[in-house]
Amino acid sequence: SRDIPEPDLPAFPPEFLWGTATAAYQIEGAAREDGRGPSIWDTYCRKPGAVLHGDTGDIACDHYHRMEEDLDLLAGLGVGGYRFSIAWPRVIPQGRGAVNQRGLDFYRRLVDGLLARGIAPMVTLYHWDLPQPLQDQGGWQERDCAMWFADYASVVFDALADRVPYWITLNEPIGASFYAYAGSHAPGLRLGGGAIAAAHHLLLGHGETVAALRALGRAAGRIGITLNFGPTSPATQEPGDIAAAARADALATRWFSDAVLDGAYPKLLTDFYEPICDFTFVRDGDMARISTPLDFLGVNYYKSWVARACELPPPGERRATDLGAVTEPPPGAELTGFGWAVCPDGFRDTLLWLREKYPGLPPLYVTENGCCYEDYVDPTGRVRDAERISFLQRYLRAAAAAIEAGVDLRGYFCWSLLDNFEWTAGYSKRFGLVWVDYPTGERLPKDSYHWYRRVIAAQTLRCER
Ligand code: PNW
Predict the structure, then answer these.
(1) Are 418 and 61 in contact (CB under 8 A)?
(2) Signal peptide location in the record (predicted)?
(3) Of all helices (H) and strands (E), which one includes residue 397?
(4) In this structure, are residues 213 and 221 in contact, taking their beta carbons and an 8 Å threshold?
(5) CA pair distance 13, 460, nearest whole angstrom
(6) Ligand 1 pocket check: which of 185, 300, 343 to mutate, most ligand atoms within 8 Å of Cβ?
(7) What is the pLDDT averaged over residues 318-335?
(8) Is any atom of ligand 1 closer than 6 Å to the C-beta of 23?
């Protein structure tokens, strides 16, 4: 592996937290084992046409049975942190009520295995896998779901709060609301105002959960939320395109961050949503609860877009994701295997923008950034993913530039440790530093794994000097 390029990066702060990220449904498998209940993704994967090739997370990377091997892969990488999510239906199979001790035990072993290897666990409490029984009661469209979530979080805190330094309430609530209730994610509904209410109830659950952890005192670790940022600019200078891009950008960058950091939804969009949403689900005190101060903000960044205007369905047929805008990659952009634009400058600018826009911004962690390409195992048994190395190199330079410009960025978690179940794309998109052979489950570190290991080692050496 001598031909893997040397990392070429400016120095990061000595205490910078290097890591990788995964999510429960995407890697665990063991969907019916040890008392786990069904989630909305188990159901959705069985809906014809919902997921490419009818793939499911039944086996996934079989991480549930290969946890020790995956812990060793993390240790071999030399990461200081690992971000994973806890499956609510493993801990409380019915969503509320009886706790499944065997589910909790799995995560206790995972946390202990990380700590034994000197790796800090960063735990996401909700990465989109709502227990199906709760969906049957209305899911996030129900205000009560916020309390069901906070109750589940409290069960997890009781078991693990003394050992987990970083908590994340929600991963990308946009995916769990707008895409789930008005798009192509589970449960696959196509709602208008109902999806906006779901988003509000997710945020309310976030606020209640922050309060629940706060009540345990400082020893219980730090808490934040992970939001996705997909900055969107107009494709042309036509007024219609400019207005369409402003709406798309408000949803893709500010709907959730304004609520959490400023205590209000962007007026541009609340005005636009007026024909489909009366916002009566926002009650007195909600926005204060939602904007409870956080210890850190998790930033997921994958790409930027440009948008043009398109026709809007009449209000009666309009979904929350219908913004009268179509998005596409910026012209001339290099694309990843998903057709997503490679735009490290957009990443740097997003980090700078966050600092400008929100005066009380807490420290940042990049909780996801990464790419998929047409990786393959070559005849010598190697995965030569030079494109991923180049991608990561450029994004890490952008992160360094943001730090240099004064952004309080404390860590970077590459998505993902393993190739895994990429939601509606099934197993067709490989984001891993480690190749997974489906369905034998065999792991093979890609060239990018070795490259990232050297990045981390070089940065760590710098801090020891
Ligand atoms: C994130 N988009 O999802 C999720 O947090 C991960 O679970 C996922 O595997 C990863 O990014 C890669 O997709 C996204 O369409 C899903 O812009 C869709 C989009 C962005 C992020």
Answers:
(1) yes
(2) none
(3) helix 386-404
(4) yes
(5) 10
(6) 300
(7) 98
(8) yes
Q: Which residues, in sequence order, are CB contacts of 204 under 8 Å at separation 6+?
A: 143, 146, 286, 289, 290
Whole-complex ipTM: 0.94
- As a whole number of angstroms, the distance between CA 291 and CA 118 comes to 33
Q: Which two tokens stand for residue 231?
A: 């900055």
Q: Which protein residue has the closest C-alpha to ligand 1 atom 9?
A: 422
Is there an atom of ligand 1 within 6 Å of 414 CB?
A: no
Average pLDDT, rounded, for the chain: 97
Q: What is the mean pLDDT of residues 125-146?
A: 98
CA angle 37, 41, 45 (to 5 degrees): 120
Is 50 a residue whose pLDDT tops 70? yes
Which residue minimizes the CA distance to atom 8 of ligand 1? 422
Query: Within 13 Å of residue 42, how many CA atoms lie on the same side as its CB?
Result: 23
Q: Torsions phi, psi of 174, nearest 5?
A: -60, -40
Is there an atom of ligand 1 within 6 Å of 175 CB? yes
Please report which confidence band the pLDDT of residue 274 belongs to, taking 50, 70 and 90 as the band edges. Answer: very high
pLDDT of residue 305: 97
Q: Are 412 and 399 in contact (CB under 8 A)?
A: yes
Reported confidence tier of residue 465, pLDDT bands at 50, 70, 90: very low
DSSP state of 5: P
Atom of ligand 1 nearest to the CA of 372: 12
- 33 is an active site residue: no
Q: Is the pLDDT of residue 19 over 90?
A: yes
**Centroid of ligand 1 to alpha carbon of 369 (angstroms):** 9
Ligand 1 pocket test: pick from 126, 178, 249, 368 the residue with the most ligand atoms within 8 Å of its Cβ: 368
Residue nearest to atom 18 of ligand 1 (CA): 175
pTM score, whole prediction: 0.98
